Amino acid sequence: MLQALDRAGAPALFFVSGEQAARHPDLVREVAAASHEVAVHGYQHQTRRQWSRALLAEDTRRALDTIAAATGRRPRLYRPPHGVFSLTGLQLIRGLDLEPLLWSRWGRDWKRAATASTIADHATARLHAGDVVLLHDADHYGAYGSWRATAAALPLIVERIAAAGLEAAAVRSEDGPGGLALTI
């Protein structure tokens, strides 16, 4: 995925679960060293809708510590697994000085039937400045091998972004999005 992003000249924002950062700290360091932003996606990849405040806090702090240990930087952005926030969870992450970020476009690339073409079609339909495109860099939580179709879709996605008169850009805080963000 890093090679595909490099070839496409596209920056990305990687939402990393703490459990994966603990298993692969060298890979998380490599992502950060390639000038991509690393953000937090919880420690465990589970929907948090029914979690207590204490459990949410423990999971989020554990993820923050694990990711910061791997990258040397504390993440500033947070996306919950499956994109599901509870009011308690949203208040908690804001209280931890994390900025919530969801997506406005997605490639549906975790599905077994996904191809580079279908991923690019879903991810780039009706693009606008400020959109956040969700993709996945691994198949830990999706169909086996699905990341290969995502990597193959990246050049198509970047071409379509350019054809729409947009460019892939980093996500900025407070002053608005820096363009169209690829979140992985």
Q: Would you kindly provide a written description of the structure presented here, covering whatever features stand out?
A:
The protein is globular, with a radius of gyration of 16 Å. The chain has 184 residues and is α/β, with parallel strands linked by helices. The strands form three sheets. Strands 5-6-7 form a three-stranded parallel sheet, with helices on one face. Strands 1-2 form a two-stranded parallel ribbon. Strands 3-4 form a two-stranded parallel sheet. The protein has helices at residues 2-8, 18-23, 25-33, 53-71, 87-95, 116-124, 146-163, and strands at residues 13-16, 37-40, 77-78, 99-100, 105-106, 132-134, 181-183. The protein folds into two domains: 1-102, Glycoside hydrolase/deacetylase (TIM Barrel, Alpha-Beta Barrel); 103-184, no CATH class.
